[in-house]
Task: structure prediction
Amino acid sequence: MQAKKILLVSIMSLGSMMMKAQIYMGKTCDISFFSKGPIEDIYAINKSTKPILNTATQEVAIKITIKAFVFDDKLMEEHFNEKYLESDKYPYAIFSGKINEKIADFKKDGTYKVTVTGKLTMHGVEKDITINAVATIKDEIISFETKFFITIKDYKIEVPKLVATNIAENIEVTVKGALTEYKK
Result:
């Protein structure tokens, strides 16, 4: 419930500033995660997410549908949704945050190393996180890329002892995307 309130407030604050600011929305966004295991590696990708950026406040919001992660192994995908992330009970992961470094002009081509600080809510747990990212502006398209790690026990994700040795405690998350100006 708290995650829904955070996203709603973020979207409302983004929406209320649409007349004053440039709102950018996801044109493309790939979110993947990787876990290196002794028996097999675990990899999944989600291509259905559309982040939002308010350039006036440098606020970012993203809502990730858990069931949209696709695995090569369908049984692994089923276990991920039913046993680990419990996606019927917790259907979304939500990040709401702010770019810490000031980007003066989002219409001017350039590459910026930035940090983004905010709250990641997943599996019913909200955690403060700061991630490093690279934002590239070219021809009024804002591309971004980040790679960071999450610790599964921080989000109360329980892994059965039988398979615990095959799932890393720290999961590598990669996010790549491009945003374009929202036009009414």
About this structure: The longest helix spans residues 2-16.
